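Our platform keeps sequence and structure together, in a single record for each protein. Such a record has a labelled line for the sequence and another for the backbone structure tokens. Nothing more is needed to write down the fold, since each code stands for a local backbone conformation. For reference, a complete record is included directly beneath this paragraph:
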Amino acid sequence: MPAFARAYARWVNAAGGLNGRKIQVLTCNDHNDTVAAAKCARRAVKEHAVAVVGSYSQHSDAFFPHLEGAGIPYIGGYGVTNAEFTSPLSYPVNGGQPSLLAGLGKELATSCGPVSLVRPDTIAGDALPTMLDAGLTAGGHAEAADQPAPEDATEYATQAETALAHATDGGTGTKSAAGGQGNGAGKGCVVTALGDRTSTFMDSFRRTRADHPEVRTATVLGSVDQSVIDAAGAGAGPFEGAYVTGWYPEVSDPAWAPMKKVISEAAFSDTRIDPADTGVQTTWIAYTVFRQAVESLAGGDVTAGTVRGALDDGLRITTGGLTPTLRWQFSDRLASIGFPRLVNAEVTLQTVRQGRLVAAKKGFVDTTKTLQNADVS
């Protein structure tokens, strides 16, 4: 994400900047640490940043107060914390983990027996079961078995065994799909949402699952990509046939052509930038928002306040079909469940076919109504 942000700045600046102004990109690594996240936010304030664009952090409680105190807008975060959907200075471009899991649950409800969810044992991870269950119950399925797991483990044998036990017999030795666990033909499903630890979990799960090839897997983009699928055995691995929900169209969609042009013209030989990476894609969309906000100022002062003002005044952002038109209001449709800034609850459905991640259906699935029925008490 930082590498692409720098490439984007080079590309824009080579063409004269935005309304004649050059972009200066500052990056800061919070090392997944609360203290470091706060330090990064204080640096943004000290450097008079006009926006934090295309970022990822699990420690919103540490950095948002600093950004809010200085009035700096947070554009296009990764959607991993609830604060991204509640702060009045947050302008999310996707529905984060809530929409991904709600959409996935709705799809699995019609094809799975007992469902297990393996997710991080963190504050952010604690919110995930509610969202998956919202999708499952909307489809008439029982709630998933919640399996918290350390996000920094080097192996997950215990969690894999527990998840598999529930997926094969509902955790009781007797339950099946016919006993109310789901609408499928008894084939259990294990959902993984462990972020970059998903590949580590799958190493453990692949060995544990050897005697139960009927158990299917499912996950969300951000926890898996094509490289993870390849490492897990591609078409012969546990991801074959899995459903995967994402925020955006698959990378082969023509709508990504402008982003790929930036990469080819400004990234040179930087192999860190993968156009299929969800973080890179989110950063591209975040800068699309920032660019249109600056252009709407028509040459006026570009400050944190003016950028925020443009977005707050109802500016409609188009992304070339990568998302619906984006427009942020003080309180949107999902305010009733505590997500007033979540304006894009649409997801795409993909599947792993012959070892390749491909579109399972065309277009987007809107999870707004599913999320509105989520029990967030």
In short: The chain has two domains: 2-95+251-344, 98-246+348-372.
